[in-house]
Amino acid sequence: MSKRYIRKDALQELRKLSAFDYLKNYQPEMLIKNGRTDYYHREHDSLHFSNGKWYWWSQGKGGTSALDYLVTVEGFDFKDACNYLLDLMKISAPVITYNYPTQAKPFELPAKDTNNDLIIRYLCNKRKIDKDIVDYFISVNQIYQDKQFKNAVFVGYNGEKPAYAFKRSIFKNYKLDHAGSNKSFSFSFTNPNSSILHVFEAAIDMLSYMTILKLDHQDFKQYNYLSLAGTSNKIASKTEADIPIALKSFLERNKNIKTIIFHLDNDEVGIGATSKIIKVLSKKYRCIDDHPKESKDVNEELVSIRI
Questions:
Q1: What is the pLDDT of residue 100?
Q2: 77 SS3 class
Q3: Dist. CA 141–CA 144, nearest whole Å
Q4: Facing residues of 31 across strands?
């Protein structure tokens, strides 16, 4: 490719084109939606695009612009990348979406019931979770009973605003993210004074582990905790090391984390997902696989202890 001179004004315009918009305009088949604002690359599972930025977790590299992407991911020489983009943009001017996001409908939680009696009975009597722990999360508006279906609702926050809700039926095997939920803010507990994060497959496993700590006379609030809300099967099925958006976002928000302890399910999916996530994160964090050894998951382990 000829390396013709790149004018300064042209280079400034090129740098405004995000990698996401480059792919959306010229290689849309390479973008796979992975959440409300997250996408990953069809050929690189751990290459994610979110809020105009991209990060290649398996390589520890990231950026914003299409130029950075072409040089880092596609292996272009810098001037070749500039000329390539200039030619593309002359043929077809890109539609820019990153700088002008569409106004999303505000996230709304399911309506609350007049009390939480049914879900308290379910969580404490059937799932054997400590009532003080359940009461605490109810008091901070992270758990409640929905009015229409009597589901247990587990809420995640973006700052002070609800941004995520996971609904779990107490009558049948129904569980689902509420419409409009942003997995970047999955159900969690944050202790900014702790450098340790415990990671779980589901909210009930997270509450179960807190209960196990309390039974061992430990303060359940001493660590950070995160529920991945059922993403292990997607991670385990990928060919390239990757991490779920809930964990990636939690780590970006909490720079104090140094150690991550995984308590995913004791099955092929959970163990496989843990292995893939640790492969990426062990470059920066101390990672420990502490999945249940005798039980299917942490809640089953708790139930066996409290029988």
A1: 46
A2: coil
A3: 7
A4: 41
The mean-pLDDT minimum among 42-51, 116-125, 128-137 falls in 42-51
End-of-domain residue from the set 23, 57, 91: 91
Cβ(24)–Cβ(99) under 8 Å?
no
Number of structural domains in the chain: 2
Over 60: is that where the pLDDT of 208 sits? Answer: yes
| 2-6, 46-50, 301-305: which is most confident | 301-305
- At 49 the three-state DSSP class reads strand
Separation in Å, CA 269 to CA 163, 244, 289: 27, 14, 14
Question: Do the Cβ atoms of 250 and 225 come closer than 8 Å?
Answer: no
Query: What type of residue sits at position 300?
Result: E
Mean pLDDT, the chain, whole residue set: 89
Q: What is the residue whose two structure tokens read 């569980």? A: 175
Radius of gyration in angstroms for the set of CA atoms belonging to the chain, rounded to a whole number: 22
155 within 8 A of 141, measured Cβ to Cβ: yes
User: Distance between CA 218 and CA 267 in Å, rounded?
Assistant: 28
CA 242 – CA 185 distance, rounded (Å): 18
Note whether 165 and 270 are same-domain residues. yes
Q: Which range of residues forms the domain containing residue 59? A: 8-91
Tokens of 257: 């984390």
Does the CA dihedral 195-196-202-204 come out positive or negative?
A: negative
Q: What is the pLDDT of residues 3-23, one digit of tens each?
A: 566 788 888 888 889 999 999
How large is the greatest C-alpha to C-alpha distance in the chain, in angstroms? 76
Q: Is the pTM of this model over 0.85?
A: no
Q: Is residue 162 part of a domain?
A: yes
**How far is 222 from 76, CA to CA, in rounded Å?**
48
Sign of CA dihedral 206, 207, 211, 214: positive
In a domain, 47, yes or no: yes
Q: Give pLDDT, residue 102.
A: 47
